[in-house]
# Entry
Amino acid sequence: MWIKGLKSYLYTIKNEAPYPIVDLEFIKIKAIELEAENLKFQDFLRNLDSLSLDKKVFELFEAISPKIECTDCGNCCKSLIVNIDETEANNLSAYLGQSRATFDEKYLDKGESGRMVVNAIPCHFLVGNSCSVYEHRFAGCKEFPAFHVPDFNKRLFTTYMHYDRCPIIFNVLETLKIDLAWQSDSE
Ligand code: SF4
Ligand code: SF4
# Structure
C-alpha cells in the first residue's frame, strides 16, 4: 500500500522503491542526497505550530510503524549507545539472576557524562534482530524513535541524527514533506 503522494515523490527523486522503504542502504544514500533539502525542511518545521505538528507526526507514526517490522531491522540496537539508570540496571540484573556487580562488569560502562551505558554496540541483548530482554528493555529503547513525545519540532536535530539509520524515521519524515505539501524550492 502507498500513502498518497509518496509514489510520485519517489519518482521525482528518480528512485522507485516499495513503500514503506526499509532498505537501509537506499536510506543511507538518500540521507546523503537529501542533506541540504532536509536542513531546509527542518527550518520550515521549526516555525510550525508545535501542537498541530505533534498531532500530524504522531498520526503518521501510527500509520507507518505497523508496516515496518523492527525484527527485520534491529538497526537502532546495532548502532546506538544505550543509556541506563540505576533502577533499570537493578531490574534487568534481577531478571537475569545476576548480582549488580557481575551485571555491571559484563554489560555496563560509564559514558563521557558519567552516565551508565551498555558497553557494546551492537547491544549485548540483541539476538538476531530481536531484543532478548524485551519486557525489561530500557526506557530509551522503549521511547525510540520518539514520535509520540511532545515538541517534535524542538527535537529535530536528534530526530535527524537517526534519519539514516531508522526506516520508521525516514518514512515518517519523507511522508510528512508530502502531507505538508512542502517543496524544497518553496523556502
Ligand atoms: S536492550 Fe534490547 S531494545 Fe534495548 S538496545 Fe538492547 S537489544 Fe535493543
Ligand atoms: S526503531 Fe527503527 S532502527 Fe529500530 S528496529 Fe525499528 S525500524 Fe529499525
